[in-house]
Design a protein that fits this description.
- The strands form two sheets. The protein has a six-stranded mixed β-sheet, sandwiched between helices.
- The longest helix has 17 residues, at 172-188.
- By secondary structure, it is of the alpha/beta class.
- The chain has helices at 42-49, 74-81, 98-108, 113-126, 142-154, 172-188, 200-206, 224-229, 234-241, and strands spanning 4-13, 16-26, 31-35, 57-62, 65-68, 84-87, 160-164, 192-196, 209-214, 217-223.
- This is ATP-binding cassette domain-containing protein.
- Keywords: ATP-binding, Nucleotide-binding, Transport.
- It comes from Paenibacillus validus.
Length: 246
């Protein structure tokens, strides 16, 4: 059983089609890099998968649970949403401690306090910020905040991790730290990861497979090496070579 399948997905804003994906599927334990020009629909794609945005039409099959995404209510979708975690490009920190920021999702799920503490410490250790547990989250640097956003997602032990440009606003040192965390996650946890990135070499370093999203469509999907070395579609060839693609 594939953890995630997409069927006839369409997302629109008025008359403008933002996404049109007839079919796509993702395997368990695989990391997918999603690349493409600005405005291709990459972030919208992740938000629809996380049930944060409703498409005009289409269905999702999430670990065998097939749902009409266009008609899915919050109450009927929350049990599926809780199997995923989403890390935004610009994470918001709540006006509490680092510990409480990471523990918030567990609290909403009714996890007992003692178990909550164990999971939070484990997540903070994973991102190298266990010593920061008592600090105010709003005092963190940009790189630290992004690491806490990752911890906040990982503490939920999701089956599917969705990363929307997790290093786009960071300096090279913090990019390296985030990439090391992602690599460690993949070694220690068998989860499916979808990562949107504007950095082609980052996608190449971290991903098992890559997708090229262009004008709202998945133009090409392949194993990472073949994706970069032998791109089939002319638009992807141009994009990899650095030509303007829009």
């Amino acid at each position: 059983m594939k953890p995630l399948e997409i069927h006839n997905l369409t997302v629109a804003s008025g008359e403008r089609i933002l996404l049109s994906i007839p079919a796509a599927s993702f395997d368990e334990g695989v990391m997918y890099g999603i690349v493409g020009p600005s405005g291709a629909g990459k972030s919208t794609f992740l938000r629809v998968l996380n049930l944060l945005e409703k498409p005009r039409s289409g269905s999702l099959s999430i670990w065998g649970h097939k749902v009409n995404a266009a008609e899915l209510s919050h109450s009927k979708g929350v049990h599926l949403q809780r199997q995923m975690a989403f890390v935004a490009q610009k994470p918001a920190m709540f006006q509490t401690t680092v510990f409480d920021n990471v523990a918030l999702g567990l609290s909403y799920r009714g996890v007992p306090r003692s178990r909550r503490a164990q999971l939070v410490r484990k997540a903070l250790d994973l991102v190298g910020l266990e010593a920061a547990a008592g600090r105010k989250a709003t005092s963190l640097s940009g790189g630290e905040a992004q690491r806490i956003a990752l911890a906040r997602a990982l503490v939920l032990e999701p089956k599917l991790l969705l990363l929307d440009e997790p290093t786009s606003n960071l300096d090279p040192a913090n990019v390296a730290i985030i990439e090391q965390i992602i690599t460690r996650i993949r070694k220690e946890r068998a989860m499916t990861v979808l990562m949107v990135t504007h950095h082609l070499q980052q996608a190449r370093r971290l991903s098992d497979q890559c997708l090229f999203l262009h004008q709202g469509q998945i133009i090409e999907q392949n194993d990472t090496e073949a994706f970069f070395e032998s791109p089939r579609h002319e638009a992807l060839q141009d994009f990899i070579s650095g030509k303007m693609v829009y």
